[in-house]
Design brief:
This protein is of the alpha+beta class. Helices cover 24% and strands 32% of the residues. A hairpin with a 2-residue loop joins strand 5 (93-95) and strand 6 (98-101). Bound molecules: 2-oxoglutaric acid (AKG). This is Bifunctional peptidase and (3S)-lysyl hydroxylase JMJD7.
Length: 316
């Protein structure tokens, strides 16, 4: 690892990543008091790839005033949704030498609400988090409570979102550290989400390893088994838990500075493409996010270069 390689490995990655993070990574995620114009959004946030939290952008959504667990029960309680279930709340996480994906159950939303409200028990930790536009696909009855996209963002980005996702889960449900190639507008409707962020320039100090993909399966007895996916390639994933980083194993992570923020009901986080994120939530938090595909531009190329150099020099 890096510290063992003295200067050689550090020199290039510091030259590539330090100026960027020093110049443009803030100490805290800034707030905007109102939605930006498309020009301001693009110029001040998308183009420089900086996160911000936008207030008063969802006021006109009926969802903000209507959505609660009882409202969801009354409107979509009998609708079946896809639910991710894990023994410990960690979906898509490294466990031993495996990359383990959650068991996926189809349950009426009311069963999830029963667990969230404490009137029933279910083995493991539940999280409605299917990331394939599960809002329009699984819960279309809720669509009239919000806008189908974020107009100023669609105008700025010159496209419509690729996916609109609905998130509802228990406090123990955690999304492990990862990055996406999406410009993400993450809207909290009820409760709060806690994000831990790293800019793309931290890539040399964030370890990746290759894991055999596997899936949790829930047995009749309510226990979990880890079942390997058949004949598929290994998956690169981040083994490090940013809440309890193993610095003896990953000393390079010391060089990073995580940016933490809480996104509260009525607020929208602009999470720029390629930023690493780890996410926790309050119990029963309800959120919707819009994923806009990123432009495969110079920012993307910079990240690919950083990624290739990191791999080539064995920093991972
Ligand atoms: O809300 C979460 O748990 C994770 C969100 C996320 O990873 C995303 O929107 O890309």
């Amino acid at each position: 690892h890096m510290d063992g390689r003295a200067g050689a490995g550090c020199c290039w990655c510091q030259q590539l990543s330090a100026p960027l993070s020093e110049l443009s990574v803030p100490l805290a995620v800034p707030y905007l008091d109102e939605p930006p114009t498309p020009l301001h959004f693009y110029r001040d946030w998308v183009c420089p790839n900086r996160p911000c939290i936008i207030r008063n952008a969802l006021q006109h959504w009926p969802a903000l005033h209507k959505w609660s667990l009882p409202y969801l029960r009354a409107t979509v309680g009998s609708t079946e949704v896809s639910v991710a279930v894990t023994p410990d709340g960690y979906a898509d996480a490294v466990r031993g030498d495996r990359f383990v994906m959650p068991a996926e159950l189809r349950l009426p939303l009311s069963s999830v609400l029963d667990v969230l409200e404490g009137s029933a028990q279910h083995p493991g930790v539940l999280y409605v988090q299917k990331q394939c536009s599960n809002l329009p696909n699984e819960l279309p009855q809720l669509l009239s409570d919000l806008e189908p996209h974020v107009p100023w963002a669609s105008e700025a980005l010159g496209k419509m979102p690729d996916a609109v996702n609905f998130w509802l889960g228990e406090a123990a449900a955690v999304t492990s550290l990862h990055k996406d190639h999406y410009e993400n507008l993450y809207c909290v409707v009820s409760g709060e989400k806690h994000f831990l962020l790293h800019p793309p320039s931290d890539r040399p100090f964030i370890p990746y390893e290759l894991y055999t993909p596997a899936t949790y399966q829930l047995t009749e007895e309510g226990t979990f088994e880890v079942v390997d996916e058949e004949a598929v390639e290994k998956v690169p994933w981040i083994p490090l838990d940013p809440l309890a980083p193993d610095l003896a194993q990953y000393p390079g992570y010391r060089r990073t500075q995580a940016l933490r923020c809480t996104v509260r009901a009525g607020e929208m986080l602009y999470l720029p493409a390629l930023w690493f994120h780890h996410v926790q939530q309050s119990h029963g938090c309800i959120a919707v996010n819009f994923w806009y595909d990123m432009e495969y531009d110079l920012k993307y190329s910079y990240f690919q270069l950083l990624d290739s150099l990191t791999k080539a020099s064995g920093l991972d």
